[in-house]
Specification:
The protein is of the alpha+beta class.
Length: 456
């Protein structure tokens, strides 16, 4: 059995902490077993490892999330990177071709596809094998996990079971689906055995490979990647699930929750205050999550979420917080904070001058033992000022030490990298006529390989 975790989306419902590069699954707002901050994806990855499934698990993601995934899960995580953001059908099709053509996975192998950020107990992953057993026993095209509802939710989708299936059987046939019903309808469906649809499903690899052949789409991974931008931008539900001849579902009666909005996420955050701030005794049911260096004070407001990051500040009633995505539909802003495999950066200032020059100032943190890629930029000059720590710089093939107080000028087209010998903090000032993150050409990632390039 192989597992594909779908990691994508911009997570605008958890703005301003989430953005196009740091989606909701990367926010370190939960606590791990050791009491340290933990993101949703780190929690899921820990649970997968505890279930002995890590070596069988892949993460399908967009290119913008590759760096943060390596940073949070480690460099040995198996990633299947989309050339561009499409939808779930193209993403799963790309993953299937990777398993088939690059990994040599058997066509009879069961593939489990699931979101990267479900909030579940560890037993959930131990029971994923139920899907494989349901496929084998039912001869269905697809097998889904349906969660036993604990209340008539209007926010979730529902799986409607076959009328004659026993509730305690190993699986049930699926006669249909219903998205976000009214409360009364949800109550009636639950009484008839309906289950919450948690977006977890399985199929035999040959099922999807045959669909690609029928659609005259590539089954070789490299060719699929080349044609990726031409694939239909459509969900797996519409393209595959709704057309499947036979679908089975297995019942899961453990804890499951979607933490996709502030009102649901704060239910699992045990501290009312994260970061600098004060909450008055007259304030009830409020949460403050502050990533800024200035304090936030909340006085007399109840059942509110106050979230602050370099991307913005949100003050909202918890019940209305899911609407923030609609509020931001017309907002276009570059991410002001990003995590990378080597550390993180925060944008401190951005200005455009009358002569067309753009100036962007970042505070960069590189963890000890990590390095930037060997890279160059075509559109900008950079000036680095070292605030803390020490490192080794490579600049156009020359290597030298870098320490507190040093100032380094990096003209455009200059090839450069740095290895942090200890935690390193740098103020970087970029100057150019177009300052974009895409203005980067990476020549090498591993430090040993960078050193070899300098010696030749």
């Amino acid at each position: 059995m192989k597992i594909v975790l779908l990691s994508g989306g911009s997570g605008k419902r958890l703005w301003p902490l989430s953005n196009d590069s740091r989606s909701k699954q990367f926010l370190k707002v939960l606590k791990g077993p050791d009491g340290q901050p933990e993101s949703m994806i780190q929690r899921v990855w820990r649970q997968i490892e505890d279930a002995g499934l890590r070596e069988h698990t892949y993460v399908a993601t967009g290119r913008s999330q590759v760096e943060i995934l390596y940073g949070q899960l480690g460099s040995d995580v198996r990633l299947i990177a989309e050339p561009s953001r499409r939808d779930t059908f193209p993403a799963i099709a790309l993953a299937a071709t990777y398993l088939y053509a690059m990994e040599g996975v058997s066509l009879t192998e069961t593939v489990v596809v699931m979101p990267v950020d479900p909030y579940v107990d560890g037993r959930f992953f131990a029971e994923l094998g139920m899907l494989e057993r349901a496929l084998d026993a039912s001869a269905a095209d697809l097998a889904l996990i349906g969660v036993q509802p604990t209340y008539p939710s209007e926010k979730y989708g529902y799986i409607l079971p076959g009328a004659e299936d026993a509730a305690d059987g190993p699986y049930t046939t699926v006669r249909g689906f219903r998205e976000k019903p009214a409360r009364a309808e949800a109550e009636a469906m639950i009484a008839q055995g309906a289950l919450w649809n948690c977006g977890v499903f399985a199929f035999k690899l040959d099922f999807l490979i045959n669909i690609l052949i029928a659609h005259e789409l590539p089954i070789q991974h490299e060719e699929m990647a080349k044609r990726y931008d031409t694939l239909p931008q459509i969900s797996f539900d519409y393209e595959v699930v709704e057309k499947a001849n036979r679908i089975a579902a297995v019942r899961y009666d453990g804890d499951w929750k979607d933490l996709g909005t502030w009102n649901t996420l704060t239910e699992e955050i045990d501290s009312a205050l994260t970061g600098k701030g004060m909450i008055s005794a007259q304030t009830k049911g409020a949460h403050v999550i502050n990533e800024l260096d200035v304090p936030i004070a909340v006085l007399g407001l109840s059942d509110v979420i106050v979230a602050a990051s370099p991307d913005g500040i949100l003050v909202a009633e918890k019940a209305l917080s899911p609407l923030v995505k609609d509020l931001l539909k017309t907002s276009e802003q570059r991410p002001m904070y990003e995590e990378r495999r080597w550390g993180r950066y925060r944008v401190l200032d951005y200005a455009v001058y009358p002569d067309g020059r753009e100036v962007l100032t970042k505070r960069i943190f590189i963890a000890g033992g990590r390095n930037l890629s060997y890279q160059y930029h075509s559109l900008r000059d950079e000036v680095w000022t070292v605030m803390a720590g020490r490192g080794i710089v490579v600049l156009d093939g020359r290597m030298f030490a870098l320490s507190v107080g040093d100032v380094l000028q990096i003209p455009k087209e200059s090839r450069h990298s740095v290895l942090a010998e200890s935690d390193l903090e740098i103020i970087e000032v970029q100057t150019g006529t177009l300052l974009i993150e895409e203005d980067i050409v990476r020549l090498e990632m591993a430090w040993d390989e960078i050193v070899q390039l300098c010696e030749t």
